[in-house]
Write a structure and sequence with these properties.
The chain is α/β, with parallel strands linked by helices. It has a single domain, classed as Rossmann fold. Helix content is 40%, strand content 18%. The chain is globular. It binds S-adenosylmethionine.
Length: 262
């Protein structure tokens, strides 16, 4: 199923403006108040290795707004080419680059200028030549077929109304037979009702766009990938009252998922 009828009813232009505006704030004002936790405390809670965090630009960690940990599933090896979708201020891309080594490369894609500017400034400041951050929408990737070994993404696909398109693009840019997708994202146990789905602020906060888990898995498998493993990120939780209410009622939760390109 591409999107549910309810998800088709959300005003997508308003939503995109809200998403850009929220993640502009996340890049520029990481100490602000949001529906979700951010930064190093969150990263450590989710399971990130302290040594990895000590070896990447600290400013990328302060704006980290991911929802889970997937590097244990991704198993990135030296020399592999990695694509990070919705790379934000770059924390996961910087960690991926520690694993690929200086001879390979990591590319991050994001649609929010302030996130890209911050990530690119850190690339320059830290003199890293194996990472590039480019502007783009993850529903339509500007890369060749089979260009990457691993696609990663953290807390992003839930924000996209056309999730089926995103998974089809991921499958297209992954190398067949060995290419893999390792992501963390928000899904729901029960279908969310219209008043939550059509609330673009809750959507931009990673709640309203959460697909029902079985539909989410079907969209992945319909795109030409096979799900290998799913694990819950039980340490992840929303912090505002309205967000917590929705999550408790509909089983909105974070998962990490590994899928391989068929
Ligand atoms: C929740 S943040 C996560 C950022 C980063 N992955 C992290 O863990 O900190 C979501 C990011 O996805 C980007 N984004 C959302 N929808 C997108 C889309 N359709 N195409 C490209 N980027 C998108 C936003 O600009 C934002 O930087």
């Amino acid at each position: 199923m591409e999107t549910t009828a309810l998800q088709q009813r959300v005003d997508t232009s308003d939503l995109e403006l809200k998403v850009r505006s929220m993640y502009r704030d996340v890049a520029l004002n990481p100490k602000g108040e949001y529906h979700f936790e951010m930064g190093r405390r969150l990263a450590e809670k989710l399971g990130y290795d302290k040594k990895d965090l000590d070896n990447i630009p600290p400013a990328s960690i302060e704006s980290f707004a991911g929802v889970g940990y997937f590097f244990d599933l991704a198993g990135i090896k030296e020399g592999e080419k990695v694509l990070d979708l919705g790379s934000g201020s770059g924390m996961d891309a910087f960690i991926a680059a520690l694993k690929t080594g200086r001879t390979s490369y990591v590319t991050g894609v994001d649609m929010t200028d302030e996130q890209l500017d911050k990530a690119n400034r850190l690339v320059e400041d830290f003199n890293l030549d194996n990472i590039t951050f480019v502007k783009g929408k993850i529903e339509q990737l500007d890369f060749d077929d089979a260009a990457f070994d691993v696609v990663i993404s953290n807390g992003v696909i839930n924000l996209c109304p056309e999730k089926g398109k995103v998974f089809a693009e991921i499958a297209r840019v992954l190398k067949p037979g060995g290419g893999r997708m390792a992501i963390s994202d928000i899904v729901s146990e029960r279908q969310l009702p219209g008043n939550i789905v059509c609330n673009s602020t809750l959507w931009a906060s990673c709640i309203g766009g959460a697909a029902q888990e079985n539909n989410y898995k079907t969209m992945i498998e319909n795109s030409g990938m096979q799900i290998v493993m799913i694990k819950p990120n039980s340490a992840y939780g929303f912090i505002s009252k309205s967000a917590r209410g929705a999550t408790e009622q509909y089983g909105v939760k974070s998962i990490s998922l590994l899928a391989s390109r068929v």
